[in-house]
Amino acid sequence: MSAIAQELKRIAVEGADIALGYYRGAKLRSWLKDGRSVVSEADHAVQAHLCARLAAAFPGAALLAEEAGAGPIAGDMAEAEHLFTIDPIDGTSSFVAGLPGWCVTIGYLHRGVPEAGAIFSPVWDDFYLVEDGADGRAFYNGVELPPLTDPGPVDGFTSVVCDSRILSLLKTPFPGKIRSYGSSALHLALAARSTVGFAQSKPVHIWDLAAPMALAAKVGMAVQYVDGAPVVLKDLMPGTRAKRSIVAGHPDRLPEFRSYFSY
What we know:
This protein has helices at about 5-20, 40-55, 90-95, 165-170, 185-190, 205-220, 255-260, and strands spanning about 30, 40, 60-65, 80-90, 105-110, 115-120, 125-130, 140, 145, 160, 175-180, 200, 220-225, 245-250. It is α+β, with helices and mostly antiparallel strands.
């Protein structure tokens, strides 16, 4: 396993251990930040640790973390040779509510291209790890992930994981099963693992997408905007929110899935 992947695994586990110390705590402090999304003291504690560990492990690398003021944001993002993105708790609303759909996620971009990452859901005990390099592999709980399988036509057996905004996007009733767990990174990882047919998410930022897109590249999953345009992570630096929903799935079936949406 690559040195970067090994380090990301160690650091993500440490972050998850810190988060679990706050999880379902009766005195957990949380509040609304700009954009009306939820943040908690656990987000800040985990991010501070992740940023410090990454800065020590990869001196000179640029860091881009979600929570302003909770850790360093350093370097020229778009031109950085090595950039790490940090989402200390992706799915904070689920975390604060005591629900399991949250994860710690770290992405690695080499010259703007997502190449490695870690996505760890400690409550589900699900760990996705992506190696960097042309020969790098993707793993789920230590087992190499195979290429993405074609889920077949969209029908009553098709499952999609999404956020609540999917209801405002549908232009025709979706015939399959719709589920939402609260974490964009986990939703994309489930699609990359062929556990569900497709994933949809909005709003998203680079720290939501970097690790899942590295995973997608290894298994052959397409990640697009709902209108079919490709997702380019450089366009989301240094933290710009994507203006449209993103969808992910098998490239041969994604156009059919997108046809259910208006944009």
